[in-house]
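Lay summary

Proteins are chains of building blocks that fold into shapes. Our project writes down both the chain and a compact code for its shape. Here are two examples, one after the other.
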Amino acid sequence: MPKVATETGWPSTNITQNQQGKLWVNVFLSAAKKNWSHTFSYLMFDEPRAENSGYGLFAAEPSLNTTTATPKLSGTYIHSMTTIVHDTTSAFTPIALNCSIPGESATVHDLLQKSNGTYELAVWVIKLSGRVTPLLLTWAAQSRPLRSTT
């Protein structure tokens, strides 16, 4: 049976827009890592008159005119993520690549291969702090340190 996440979201009234954006990216990456088939947001646009202000990916507009709505940081983060992982087709056979992160948790990364043969490595950790976390990524026989600032 396919698994889906519905009505997901956090109001930016209780946390910062930066934190909200990180939570959204985490939700989509974690759902993909777990092979969930669909993930839905609670609201696309803030609806302050409906007493659920802050949940949207776009800031509330007085007229709620969706053609002029301004994206919040969460909307920008999701747009950036989907732009990076976008592919033109899923009709190809992925090729395995030896990649590991020592001591990783179950949802810390996902390696995505595109139809043109390139790979995208999504690295994240479920936390809201702004600490710098050093990572050592191992690609086949090569290693190089990276810094994360999120």
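And here is the second example, written the same way.
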Amino acid sequence: MATTLNDLALVLRDRGSFAEAEALQREALELRRKSFGNHHTNVAIALNNLALTLRSQGKLAEAEDLHRQALEMQTNLLGSANVPVATSLSNLGLALQEAGKFTEAEACFRQALALFQKLRGAEHPSVALVLDNLASVLREENKLEEAETLQLKAVAMQRRLLGEEHKDVATALNNLAQVLAKKGDLAKAEALHRQALAMRQKLLPSEHVEVASSLENLALVLRGEAVAERGLQSAAPANPPQTQRTEVRAPERLKEAEDLGRRALAMREKILGGQDLRVGKAFDSLGLILRDQGRLAEAEAAFRRSLEITRKSAGGEHPLLAAAFEHLLDSLARERKPAEIESVAREILTPELETTPHGARLLHARDIARAEASKDTDAP
């Protein structure tokens, strides 16, 4: 019965029906505890499965706790060098990465990769997945050269093992595109994001969190290209020779970016509800696109919503909260609203947070916004 419940839950999770999947997996976990006791490999598997579904809903604290329980249980029951432990390490790494704990996540992925390579060989789907995960967290840590090297290995291995069209191949292409975008190779990143989006739309339900992720990522790359094109345009001579002319499509790119960003936001709100961390990120991305079109009031509203959601769902020390805080204060500075800057800073910068390394980043953002907002009033 527990196995049947879990199998059905996995189908529901793949379709994006996370709440239904969670209910079934909680029931399956209790059945396995009744059948096997609290310390058994089948219980550890159930803990891992439930944690993955919780992570998909943005319930990161509980997911991390369950992954740690599963890892400890499997290590005690099976030893430290086996496939279930490697799987649990990888899953814990994913939860830590989404919580912004990048150093711990990297360590988990490196341990999992070494175990999978030892136990399953150098060419295996599990090895490819962990390479992809490790590359992703290295990107977050700005270790971009190693991230790109590992990401290329992951894409090539996924294609050899799974074929050209598979959801894991789409994920690897998406992640490679994000590395390239961070390195500034926006044209290649755009092409890969379009390829990943098309693949996900073909292989997954039309409304799925991974489809929403591709929509948002493509929107951000288009925004980056628009910003770069505007920079080129402003730096170009008034009447460049014909051979030096560059087609600038910044307004069109921003228009498409806004459409994609709004679609991603609507899809995430429908699937995940209004308070999920990924919904907060989608509001932040939309705010950036609106800001770059000069629509500051709309951008401010989006950034405020992002900050509200991120603070509630992730707390004060998550990297996404810092980004939302910086973007909102930048928007208020552009609108010359110094009083609003102080109000937001007082609300977010608690005395406890100010003393942390993360708090130092927020204080720096506040000081920059203060200086920017005062420029006009200080001018003679």
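What can we say about the second shape? Residues 277-380 form a domain with the Serine Threonine Protein Phosphatase 5, Tetratricopeptide repeat fold (CATH 1.25.40.10).
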